[in-house]
Amino acid sequence: MGLYPDAPDAPDPQQTASAQTATNIGTSVANNVMGNVNQVTPDGNLTYTYTTQKWKDPLSGKEYDLQVPTATQTLSPEQLAIKNQTEGAELNMATLANTQSGKLNDLLGKPMDISKAPAAGNAGAIGLPQYQQFAGGPKLQSGLANYGNVTGSVANAGNIQTNLGNTGQVQTGLSSAGNIQSQIANAGNLQRSVADSGNIQTSLGNAGDITRSYETDFSSDRQRVEDALMQRMNPQLDRDRAALETRLTNQGLQPGSEAYNRAIDEANRSASDARFGAILNAGQEQSRLAGLANQSASFQNSAQQQAYNQQLGSGQFANTAQAQQYAQNANNMQMGNAAQQQQFGQNQAQQQANNAAQQQQFGQNLAGGQFANQAQQQQFNNALQSGQFANAAQSQQHGQNLSAAQLANQAQQQKFSQGLAGAQFGNDALQQMYQNQNTSTAANNALADQGFNAQQSKFNLQNQQRAQYLNEQYAQRNQPINEIIGLMSGAQVNSPSFVPTQSNPMPTVDYAGLVQQDYANKMGAYNTQQANMQSMFGGMLGFGGQLASLSDKRAKKDIKKVGELKGHGLYEYSYRGKHNDGKRHIGVMAQEVEKKRPDAVSRRPDGLRQVNYGALFNAGKSK
Hints:
A hairpin with a 6-residue loop joins strand 2 and strand 3. Helix content is 58%, strand content 10%. It is mainly α. The strands form three sheets. The protein has a three-stranded antiparallel β-sheet. 7% of the residues are buried. It has helices at 13-35, 77-101, 104-109, 219-250, 258-488, 511-540, 590-596, 613-622; strands at residues 39-41, 44-56, 63-75, 548-550, 556-565, 568-575, 585-587, 601-603, 609-612.
């Protein structure tokens, strides 16, 4: 067995089917014997006997003894005597029936005479009743006579006064109280700018270019390493393949056999693993060169950043000195503006005193104008009261005219109501007459229905009498036939009543299903083991994917043993120092392997040991 375990052998279908057949036959025979229970009853006994019959399985050629049951039923002496007497009585009854059946030739050879049967009623002779149709009702009064016109307008009660006479002019303006001083004398100019304190430095000198890209395409170097590894590896792989084929031939294994193909398949996987390791080593070299290019670009950008920071510090110092000079100039400007503000306040106070005197003169003129307007308002109110009195007299005259018109309309409404009541009384009388005619028509139609039902009952009675006569004739004809049938149907002997036995059938064992399930379980375990081995192999090659992996115990930490591989301890660990990539790995310890397989261990330039897993695995497969 090599690195990967062999897959479990699939079950033989022929052997499985034969075993299933033997299981089924054994279960069937057991169920047959268990289900056939001998019974003893007062009326008789039920007994099972068995004979052996050979049966040969066409698939496996194996013979089986099948138990074939025979059920024997025995009547008690009393039931046997009853059976003999019953059979004799049945023989006598059959003889009598045979004699009487000859009379049926004459009876059935004559047609049945129904000429004397009562005549059937003719339903078509009944005439349908004639119903009386009801005519339409009288014409109702739908209109009323004219009872006069309704008054729709009121007589003119006079004009309404809508305006007042002139009561004088309202004073809307005041005499001049003098000019308001709206400006303040000039208090001097405000200082609006600060003296120049020097230029602010807004730019820095060139600190050098930033390196934004570096060489990443080292595919040619990777290909060169890969080609070198392949040129060194392929001859050895070819020699190993030829040696394997020779060894297999010497062992008597022919190409195409299962063992031969399995050995070749393992050799192919080993060669593929070796080539895959060479490709991974070449990729590791490409990654190393790309890392060196990245470090170079990072160093250049660090130098450029340092030069830029020095220039930035020099510019900030110059701007700080310029800001100090600007602050001194701004303080001088603020002192000049404060003096100008004090002069402006004094000028403003003088102007406010002048405007107070003008306000006093305006107030006196306003009081005179208000007195004149109050006198004009009193004159307007007198004229308004006079107009309101005239409009009240006109409203009183309009009310009197409106009352006269309403009285005339009430008299017209009373005449209309009296005419409407008379028309409604006439329509009520016509409706009563219509209901009387409707009731009379319904009574006449009910009499017509009664006569029709009486005739229909008469014909139904005639048909019943005819049916009764025919039934009696048919009964006389059928009586001899029924008697013969009664003689032929004798009583039967009671069979013994056997108890239905309760049997618990033995279930058939699903042997084929168990075999298949066992194979599926083994196959699942095999697949799990394969996956674990592949995962373990990937972990052992985790450091750069190299076939010759760093395995020195001095370069590892947090070591934990997890199993065995090719007789060597298998450990889980992390790398120390610069080799630490932040991952957990699985592999062997170089110091332990060196004791048993020194050919699979070599030293690196830094003095640490490394294990060639390809050589370790291949040597294990060839043994």
